Amino acid sequence: MTVEKSNIAILILAAGASKRMGERVKQLLPWNNTTLLENALTHAKESKAEDVFVVLGANEEFIKKQTQLPDEICIYNANWSSGMGSSIVAGVQHLQSLPKEYDGVLVMLADQPLVDSAYLDEVLTTLGKTRATITATGYENGLGVPAMFDKSHFPELLKLTKDYGARDIINASNIKIMNPGGKEMDIDTWQDYQELIKRMK
User: Fold this and answer.
1) Does the pLDDT value for residue 10 go beyond 80?
2) H or E stretch covering 117
């Protein structure tokens, strides 16, 4: 059965240097017979999104070599050290350079391995069903990604410069909040990774 696709692009943010991981490249940590990045890519591709792109920065060539990501889905963020906001800018700039015009963009991270295609589809299918132009994931301490932005927000997204990404836009907009049911956990440290591995066994 063919899945009907939404005219939405997914940006997987994977440009960080993962300094809290020591010498380890976080995007390449093992997860379910693959890596964190490839796990995110698989779920994104299985979702109802039309296209999926990966924003790389630190360790770009090494990550591409280890994962064999096709060049056409890779976006390089030369300003990756500036933080998440710069990766969103690089991603949206790339989308706007393409001949296709998307209705919106869904931003997700490579280090949230419990975010699956089912949750991404929940976020995706809200566009057009409510008056909200942003759908964001609810956290105990606020709102965050995965988050989807209607194309009307592209100009604002292109102005992002700070490390906390699109948080200001999310907090200032008419949004729909999604309950991730625990899938929102991200891996920041080696301890986070080990604890999640134990939890999944």
Assistant:
1) yes
2) helix 117-124
